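Many introductory courses stop at the sequence. We go one step further.
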Amino acid sequence: MPDWMYFVLIFVFGPVPITALFVLACYLYYRRYYVHVITRIFQEKPLFVIPRGEPNADAEDVRIPTAEGRTLRGCYLPTTQSQRKGVILFGLEFGSDRWSSQSYCDRLRADGYDVFAYEPRNQGDSDKDASYEPLQWVTDRDLADARAALEYLHSRPDADPHGVGLFGVSKGGSLGLLLAAEDRRVRCVATDGAFATYTTMVPFIRKWVSIYIKRREWLRKRIPDWFYGLLGNAALDEVRKQRGVEFVSVEKAVRKMRQPWLAIHGGGDTYIKPEMAETLVGLAKRSAAKELWMVDGAKHNMALHIAGDTYHDKLVEFFDRHLGTPSLARRGLSVPDRVIAAKA
């Protein structure tokens, strides 16, 4: 919209109704010329080194049938201790395989926790869904697979009746927050690099606007975040129609979640910036206990490599406080008895 049109609107309509007309005019203008840019950028996949792991002979190979007739692959890694403290569902980062969970969880296993990692559709060895191309953003199909994994844990012969803990990295952490918000059998959640769609998208749109629109700097600086949110949601609607999926709101889940939450984040993360993590954690006002641990200098999904043993100590301390119930010991079962029962 040319600058002179703003002054014409103000002169004709006065200061009160001009606000709504001004917003509408700006929205229609930016939607017409720039939503397609947001739509394209939103679907670009990040350039990460995706971790892989080696199969573990101690793991129980798991196949989970889904309601859609597909099979998800997983690995159940029992604790190396004689008694189990609890069970942890591990959510993988985008593109990685189930065996990559071991670098994050070997210390938890050594301290008394069983760990189960699963691969969602179109990832690792799980069945493919020809109608779905996963992105780093969480969709309804990702959530359906996460629900299937959680139900599997509750259906095992050695299931802990007191519930499970969740630990997820990046996209897997976001899915953990969604599960916690809807299922109270989830007792606590630890995440590393978790993110939501809206609170990640809006700051980037503000940055993109300054790249693509060189003129009217005075206007860009005065546009509020909620306006950029309108543009972002319009782009999401376009992507939703193109891909046949629904994007699930992690922000809404965090607002509902009541469980304790340990949020680990890289202080040097240039993808999910620290202020985005702070915004998301700030929404968890109902959480019984929440902590944001910012690891100085760590890039996205690199906190473990920077913090080392401190990273593992932090996780063990968190799960010991909020999950560490030796349920099998109370029932008089040893780990070998439990493993045999699970495989029978």
